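Ticket #4471: structure export looks truncated?
Reporter: QA, pipeline team
Priority: medium

Steps to reproduce: submit the single chain below to the structure queue and open the exported record.
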Amino acid sequence: MEVESLRREVTQLKTEKAALNVKSKLFEGFAAMANTCCRLPSSAEWDSLKNTLKKTLEFSMDLTGAENSSLILLDNNGVITDSIRSPGDTGQAQGCGSNGQVLDKGIAGWVRDHRQVGLITDTLLDNRWQAPPNQPQMVRSVLALPVIKCDELLGVLTLMNANPNHFSPESVEQMRATSDQIAQTIENTRLYAKLDKSYRSLDRSKQRIDAYSKALDEELEKGRQIQRDFLPQHIPELPNWDIATYFAPAKQVSGDFYDVFSLPGDNLGVVIADVADKGVGSALYMALIRSLIRVFSGHISLHGFANFSIINGVTKSVMEQCATTDQLNALTAVKLTNDYIAHEHSKEGMFATLFFGVINPLNGVLAYINGGHEPLIIVDASSRIKKRLDPTGPAVGMMVDIKFEIRQVQIEPGDILIGYTDGVIEAQAPNGDFFTRKRLLSIIEQTTSSASDLVDRIKTSVSTHVHNAPPSDDITMLAIKRLDLN
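Actual output as written to the record:
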């Protein structure tokens, strides 16, 4: 009796050990499936996943003692999209026909309709089993389980054996866990497949965007070069005068500009301006305003625009014998430009702050209009602030018939006139602090040797302040020094 009992215990231990080995292989298969589905599946990886699922069927057969098995995969309509069979499948697994077959009958159809475990203890006594036609009855026990994830039926797992009453309640529970793991694997794979499709679509979109962006950059680069060409290529060289400029757009194109050009009567025209906003629109307005100022200040008529009076709207607070007629006539360009912009382009709502000055190089008289621009500063030979050239009218282009006052100032030998756009005083550090007008004036009041030296010092100080922060606005400067003959 003791020997027989010991023999039974040894047999049971061997059985449990074998079952444990099978379970270990099964969980290894789960790990392999998890590893496969956690990557973007290529076609090769789909094949790898199917091979892993096939091994899972083999492990399930070893664990339950089944002789045949199958796994059919379904779409949302219950139509077969794929099927996996065990190596020893004899073709009696129901519902494993060609892809596209709809499950209407048999145990697989019953599982699809009821979404429950289908356990047939004897196929001869259960009408849910329908043997394939013209084939001998080789199946007596069937265990079919729904593969479900989030209430969606993904497939049906079927195990078969030639003996009745083969599948135990323990087998049923073990296969529930297996079907749950298969469902998780299939769902993850589907999700990653959708993600892969999205990634591919996103990549194609990115390529199109990159191509468009490249073409746009090329066009903007052309615009930048064209805008650069609008700036004076050569500053007029005048005896006893030193002129320096600086231009740094925040983007590829800018609304800032400066200009220095010769005018009738041997005068020198100087302009510094800032068109509202930044980018392509302001750059186009910059080009328009710059051209209009040059045209009107040179007394060149524009067809269809002669109804605007040259003198109307300009208040002269200077004596004619100080600022020459040529200087005064040139400054009417501000009035004409304003009226043209406001009359023809009011719907765009664009305007510009603009300083236009006309210098008589012989006597240093500067007649000017400041249309809403930052005050220009004149410092004397000792770097003391001598004069602020405040606005004499509003910004240019806001409305028709605005009046601009002409003023004059004397630039003495040793004096420097410095103009700038608000991008200088509003340059931002990485922490958001502005450069400020106070800091700018402290630099202007330091002793300087030349116009270019002053511009360079301001540029260096602004660059240090901004550090590596992206530029917040265009920066433009214009400095003019009347040299001391002594």
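Status: closed, not a bug. The export was complete when the record was re-opened. Leaving a note from the reviewer for reference: The first strand starts at residue 68 and ends at 74.
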